[in-house]
Amino acid sequence: MPHVDIFREPVYRTFRSSECSWAAFYMKLVNVFRYFLPILIIFVTDGLWRKTNTFREVPDISLTGDFIVYAYGHDRSIVSSSFAVLNSAASSDQLSTSQITHHFSNPTDFGEEEDNGFDDDVQILNLNLQFQMSTQNLSIDTLIYAFVLKFRLDYHSVIDMELLLTDTLKLPPSTSTIQTTARLSVDQSIPFHNSKQTFQIIDRSRQDVEHFQIQSVLRRVTQSPITLEMKR
């Protein structure tokens, strides 16, 4: 008896749907979740190439040249600053002229090598800051100053912070020159919540005098996630 194939069914069939069909839309949606969603998660979470363990980065710290200095006497006070809003609000007998100069130096240039507790590859710099202010024949007993510095990290994170070097000094009578030597350290009390963060203590676009008052500035310094500490 001869063998005759009456019906033959293939093991599988390949169907190609049109571009506007629901099947094609479903396959494209699956491909989006398969390929593009992981890439999107990588960029939203700052990338898998970012470091997740403990790391050390030397920040870039520079002095902007902005400052606010208040000097208090027995019956009145004088002020000197680099902000026009604060200077315009001061009276003629309260506003004082001043001059500020600064430079960074290497401690080894002056034979000041010491054990600072850091590795040998960490560079320690001295900030030499000189400030001259006219006292206007005022017997000063209290001096409050705030010098603005810029703090930047750009390796693991992009952080732009404004730091203020502040201190309050009680002066004996007939004081004409003050020399303060201290070690500056950065204290971070609040962790960064993202890799890009900017914090500004003094908003230069403000026109209200209260924003530039020394007490208001010092209050905002305590709210900053990063502050400078002076260890005399």
From TrEMBL:
InterPro entries referenced in this protein's UniProt entry, alphabetically: TMEM231
Name the UniProt record assigns to this protein: Transmembrane protein 231
Compartments (UniProt record): Cell projection, Cilium membrane
Organism of origin: Caenorhabditis japonica
UniProt GO cellular component terms: ciliary membrane; ciliary transition zone
Record-annotated membrane-spanning stretches: 32-49
Taxonomic superkingdom: Eukaryota
Keyword Membrane in annotation: yes
Alphabetized UniProt keyword annotations: Cell membrane, Cell projection, Cilium, Glycoprotein, Membrane, Transmembrane, Transmembrane helix
UniProt-listed Pfam families: TM231
Keyword Acyltransferase set for record: no
Family: Belongs to the TMEM231 family.
Bilayer topology term: Multi-pass membrane protein
Role, per record: Transmembrane component of the tectonic-like complex, a complex localized at the transition zone of primary cilia and acting as a barrier that prevents diffusion of transmembrane proteins between the cilia and plasma membranes. Required for ciliogenesis and sonic hedgehog/SHH signaling.
